[in-house]
């Protein structure tokens, strides 16, 4: 068992034993947004999704493979053999290495503090040029025009955005026609009993893991936003904690 999983188990035991105290602390933290942001940032770092996880990394690699064949809808970019990609919830940029060469990146994160580390990591990636970093929620991309980007990417973000339906609609709006949304997310179990356990843990989990929704299903949300074609590759990450073990690598296509 690696250190992160061990710590995670201790944390969960603590969580369920001291529920009333934790709920109170959670509500008090809500009264101090800056303190809350710092607290959750350090919590997230402690339980960071382990990038040594080979299954997850191979799924990530496979998911982004088709980006290599992407042709931009923007004539100027096409002439330069470049593509414009938007990634929201980019954090420190764990997907940068998987982008094709000549990627023009629009980086979105609700947390402005990630920019510094992201810029450091971008220096190591010659394949990516940052067009702009925008500190905003992906539920409001009104600063970007309609059909502006060739592809949209997010990994381990959709679970914790403020409004999943609005985010899905905004992603569809900024994507070019025929463009694809690539995502890698922890989701609900297919097994009904396990999904029920996720559902039981959901309220506390959401309070303590920065709005993260346990066991949700991305496909209906994307379909209701108008994505016609949503394909999912479901897999279990054995190294992850039981509650966030089921993951999907998915591609949603904007047809109209
Ligand atoms: C778990 S981290 C994932 C970071 C990175 N994508 C990765 O896979 O390592 C979630 C990130 O999403 C960002 N985030 C949360 N809600 C967001 C929203 N509504 N819009 C944009 N970013 C958001 C957080 O600030 C954080 O950087």
Could you characterize what this model shows?
The chain crosses the membrane at residues 6-32. This is Methyltransferase-like protein 7A. GO terms for molecular function: S-adenosylmethionine-dependent methyltransferase activity. InterPro entries: Methyltransf_11, SAM-dependent_MTases_sf, Thiol_S-MT. The protein is of the alpha/beta class and 256 residues long. The protein folds into two domains: 1-48; 53-253, Rossmann fold, CATH 3.40.50.150. It has nine helices and seven strands. The protein has a seven-stranded mixed sheet with strand order 3-2-1-4-5-7-6, with helices on both faces. Helix 7 (164-174) links the parallel strand 4 and strand 5. The longest helix is centred in the C-terminal third of the chain and has 17 residues, at 192-208. It is globular and about 60 Å long. The chain starts with a helix and ends with a strand. Residues 44, 88-91, 94, 108-111, 114, 137-139, 155-157, 160-162 line the site of S-adenosylmethionine (SAM).
Write the layout of secondary structure elements.
Layout: H1 3-17, H2 19-30, H3 33-46, H4 54-64, H5 75-79, E1 83-88, E2 103-108, H6 115-123, E3 128-134, E4 149-155, H7 164-174, E5 175-186, H8 192-208, H9 218-224, E6 229-236, E7 246-253
Parallel strand pairs: 1-2, 1-4, 2-3, 4-5
Antiparallel strand pairs: 5-7, 6-7
The structure holds S-adenosylmethionine (SAM).
GO molecular function, one term: S-adenosylmethionine-dependent methyltransferase activity
Domain Methyltransferase type: 86-183
Organism: Dinothrombium tinctorium
């Amino acid at each position: 068992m690696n250190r992160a999983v061990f710590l995670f188990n201790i944390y969960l035991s603590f969580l369920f034993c001291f529920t009333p105290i934790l709920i109170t602390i959670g509500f008090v933290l809500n009264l101090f947004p800056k303190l809350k942001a710092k607290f959750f940032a350090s919590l997230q770092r402690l339980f960071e999704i382990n990038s040594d996880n080979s299954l997850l990394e191979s799924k990530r690699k496979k998911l982004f493979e088709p980006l290599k064949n992407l042709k931009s809808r923007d004539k100027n970019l096409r002439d330069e053999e470049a593509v414009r990609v938007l990634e929201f919830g980019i954090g420190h940029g764990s997907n940068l290495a998987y982008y094709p060469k000549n990627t023009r990146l629009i980086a979105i994160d609700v947390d402005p503090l990630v920019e510094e580390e992201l810029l450091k990591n971008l220096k190591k990636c010659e394949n990516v040029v940052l067009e702009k970093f925008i500190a905003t929620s992906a539920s409001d991309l009104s600063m970007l025009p309609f059909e502006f980007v060739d592809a949209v990417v997010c990994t381990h973000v959709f679970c914790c955005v403020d409004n999943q339906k609005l985010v899905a609609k905004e992603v569809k709006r900024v994507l070019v026609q025929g463009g694809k949304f690539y995502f890698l997310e922890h989701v609900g179990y297919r097994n009904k009993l396990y999904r029920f356990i996720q559902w039981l843990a959901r309220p506390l989990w959401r309070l303590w893991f920065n709005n993260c929704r346990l066991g949700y299903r991305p496909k209906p949300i994307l379909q209701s936003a108008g994505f016609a074609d949503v394909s999912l590759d479901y897999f279990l990450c054995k190294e992850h904690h039981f509650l966030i073990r089921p993951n999907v690598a998915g591609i949603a296509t904007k047809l109209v």
